[in-house]
Amino acid sequence: MSSKPFMIAIAGGSCSGKTSIARGVAELVEGRTLVLGLDSYYNDFSGVPEANIEVDVPDALDHRLLVEQLRFLAGGAPVERPDYDFATHSRRKIGRRIEPGDYVIVEGLFALYWPEARELIDLAIFVTIDHDTALARRVERDVRERGRSKSSVVFQYQYKVRPNFERYVLPTMNEADLIVDGNDAVEDSAKKIVARFPQKR
Questions:
Q1: Is the model's pLDDT at 160 over the cut of 70?
Q2: Residues 6 or more apart from 80 whose CB is under 8 A from it?
Q3: pLDDT of 22-31, one tens digit each?
Q4: Cβ count within 10 A of residue 199
Q5: Are strands 123-128 and 79-81 parallel, antiparallel or unpaired?
Q6: Given its phi and psi angles, is residue 21 left (phi above 0), alpha (psi -120 to 50 degrees) or beta?
Q7: Closest CA to 92 of 80, 84, 81
Q8: For residues 33 and 31, which has the higher predicted lDDT (pLDDT)?
Q9: 90, 118, 138, 183: least surrounded by Cβ within 10 Å?
Q10: What Å distances lie between residue 167 and 12, 37, 154, 155, 172, CA to CA?
Q11: pLDDT at residue 85 in the model
Q12: Taking a C-beta distance cutoff of 8 angstroms, is the pair 32, 99 a contact?
């Protein structure tokens, strides 16, 4: 394997399957693989009323720190990744040290949004999904993992998530080298992605 990690970005709408596909890719490749979720890079919103928090817009993330750390990882250096708590909308005081590995998979809504981040990426992926499926998945996830009510999740999706997806995320599909369907089996999508990897590392 070469010393420089092979950098993959997986973007797409909320609950399209980005994280599952990223993990599926990691299971298929030989060598050390880091899956870096952009959710860790949300700004600290502690003390901000929940109704005023916008998490589905690019400015909600600390993209300068993200790009800085991606540059370190691309160069083979470890970083201390922030640790975001969705239940309290705040960053934990202590981050997590992570090593780059042979492959770095960056996944999140805005994985293909910032040009300075895209220039570090070797393979760009976009995951599509229909809105009905995405909403059903988001309700199940946010009620179970993030302490939300079903009605609040539906309201947020209709009036914030979907409009912001169409404004900010969907246009980044044009930056993708490969588009996969979030309704397909995770293993099938992962195999399509891995097929685009260099044959020799």
A1: yes
A2: 95, 96, 97, 98
A3: 999 999 998 8
A4: 4
A5: unpaired
A6: alpha
A7: 84
A8: 33
A9: 183
A10: 12, 21, 19, 18, 10
A11: 86
A12: yes
Element (H, E) at 137: helix 131-145
Q: Exposed (0-12), middle (13-18) or buried (19+): which is 109, by Cβ within 10 Å?
A: buried
Q: Report the residue count for the chain.
A: 201
pLDDT at residue 48 in the model? 86
Q: Is 22 helix (H, G, I), strand (E, B) or coil?
A: helix
Angstrom distance (rounded) from CA 142 to CA 160: 15
Strands (E), 33-189: 33-37, 79-81, 84-85, 90-91, 96-98, 103-107, 123-128, 178-181
pTM of the complete model beyond 0.85: yes
Look at the block and give the residue holding tokens 């997806």. Answer: 165
What is the DSSP code (8-state) at residue 89? Answer: T
Name the residue with tokens 């404004």. 167
Apex 44 CA angle, 140 and 12, nearest 5: 45
Record: fold of 6-194: Rossmann fold (3.40.50)
113's tokens: 């949004």
